[in-house]
Write a sequence for this structure.
């Protein structure tokens, strides 16, 4: 149980910067405008087991990305409930994504040198 | 899970209530945003699984969306970093270098007084004071027209949907006003409209009538006419006086050095005492005095604008946002 708590905390610390990178990546990879729920489901489909990002933590990051001008957004009324906010990446957002992707690749390669690439013998969570 | 609430949310409203509790003490505008995000997501999830009941869906969501505590923590964290990045005036000093810088340039009272000129916030607040005349008149007109038409149409069947539409419109206006206030005075205001209740017409109207915000929003919009008129009058009077004094001092200086001013440049009326041609040192003294008074007045106005901006932000939050 303690182990579990620790990995959860570690995951949260890691996520602080990664959520925005992934969100920019998801929006850059598509031509459509996406809304929060849609994005959350795309992330969920890409990963089995307990989600890496809690869906509730995506929304504040989407807002802050939009406030920085990296995403544009529009509100569309919905039949299912409250109006939805659709997001689209801006040119500035693409530039930021390119920079961050480079930083991330660099970091990942660096970390891998010391922790080693995961081997099939590792116990799977 | 980390959830400390013994009761698991059975309904979306329960979840929202727990989220609101977890966010207690945070900026009301941020709470409103967080609640509308959660509601959008949870309702979309329920709509995507029409065969299961709300309770089952919510139980699985607690794992994927996050417990109210986790979600609240994420909002607080993001808000903190975004606020620090977006507001240049409130940025905390980080690192020793900037602390030393701040100590070295620790402004004296005089410098601090005149720093209002370089503070964007005071200029935008001044703009806010000027536009409130227009927005205030508009809100007042909308509310008075809406209320009278609602009362007038109340006996007809059309009165009910009209009233609902009218209240919905005032909420949109409240959101727009919030955006305007945040843009010009820097006070954090909601980025999402307040969600409307669900259900039939009667349920919606009942919820609207019971929601104190419906009424405080109307009060705010009515109040904006007198308040806006006051802000506008104060801003325009002081700025006109200040600019007039500055312009007068320029004329005075030109006169004191014996420049030949074209007639009618300042005034052609003999009745205005300052227009009586002064010469040399006298004109210079008058010019210097009006320059000083003009600059002081305008600086004071900029400070006043900032104060008004802060005060108005609080007022708007009290009436338009607070639950």
């Amino acid at each position: 149980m303690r182990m579990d708590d620790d990995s959860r905390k570690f995951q949260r610390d890691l996520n602080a910067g990664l959520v925005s990178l992934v969100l920019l990546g998801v929006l850059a990879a598509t031509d459509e405008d996406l809304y929060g729920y849609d994005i959350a489901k795309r992330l969920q489909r890409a990963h089995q087991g307990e989600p890496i990002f809690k869906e509730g933590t995506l929304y504040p990051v989407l807002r802050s990305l939009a406030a920085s001008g990296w995403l544009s957004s529009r509100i569309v009324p919905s039949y299912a409930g409250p109006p939805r906010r659709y997001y689209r990446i801006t040119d500035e957002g693409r530039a930021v994504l390119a920079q961050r992707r480079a930083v991330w690749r660099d970091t990942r390669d660096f970390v891998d040198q010391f922790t080693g690439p995961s081997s099939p013998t590792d116990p799977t969570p | 899970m980390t959830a400390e609430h013994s009761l698991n949310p059975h309904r979306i409203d329960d979840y929202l209530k727990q989220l609101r509790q977890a966010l207690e003490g945070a900026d009301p505008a941020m709470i409103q945003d967080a609640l509308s995000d959660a509601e959008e997501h949870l309702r979309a999830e329920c709509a995507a699984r029409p065969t299961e009941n709300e309770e089952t869906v919510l139980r699985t969501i607690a794992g994927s969306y996050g417990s109210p505590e986790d979600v609240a923590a994420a909002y607080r964290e993001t808000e903190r970093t975004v606020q620090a990045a977006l507001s240049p005036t409130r940025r905390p000093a980080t690192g020793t270098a900037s602390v030393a810088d701040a100590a070295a340039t620790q402004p004296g009272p005089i410098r601090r007084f005149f720093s209002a000129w370089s503070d964007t916030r005071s200029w935008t607040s001044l703009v806010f004071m000027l536009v409130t005349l227009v927005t205030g008149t508009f809100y007042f007109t909308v509310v008075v027209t809406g209320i009278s038409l609602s009362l007038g149409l109340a006996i007809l069947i059309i009165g009910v949907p009209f009233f609902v539409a009218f209240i919905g419109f005032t909420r949109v206006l409240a959101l727009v006003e919030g955006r305007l206030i945040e843009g010009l005075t820097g006070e954090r205001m909601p980025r999402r409209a307040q969600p409307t209740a669900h259900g039939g017409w009667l349920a919606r109207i009942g919820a609207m009538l019971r929601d104190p915000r419906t009424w405080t929003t109307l009060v705010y919009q009515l109040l904006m006419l007198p308040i806006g008129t006051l802000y506008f009058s104060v801003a325009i009077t002081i700025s006109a006086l200040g600019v007039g004094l500055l312009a007068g001092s320029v004329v005075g200086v030109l006169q004191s050095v014996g420049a030949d001013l074209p007639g009618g440049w300042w005034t052609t009326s003999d009745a205005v005492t300052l227009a009586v041609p002064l010469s040399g040192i006298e004109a210079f003294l008058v010019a210097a005095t009006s320059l000083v008074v003009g600059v002081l007045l305008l600086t004071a106005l900029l400070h006043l604008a900032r104060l008004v901006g802060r005060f108005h932000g609080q007022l708007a939050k009290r009436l338009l946002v607070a639950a």
Remarks:
- The two ends of chain B are 29 Å apart (CA to CA).
- Residues 1-7, 88-104, 267-273 of chain B have pLDDT under 50 and may be disordered.
- Chain B has three domains: 1-79, 124-224, 227-321.
- The interface with chain A takes residues 33-34, 36-41, 43-45, 47-48, 63-66, 70-71, 74-75, 77-79, 81-82, 85-86, 191-193, 195-196, 198 of chain B (CB under 8 Å).
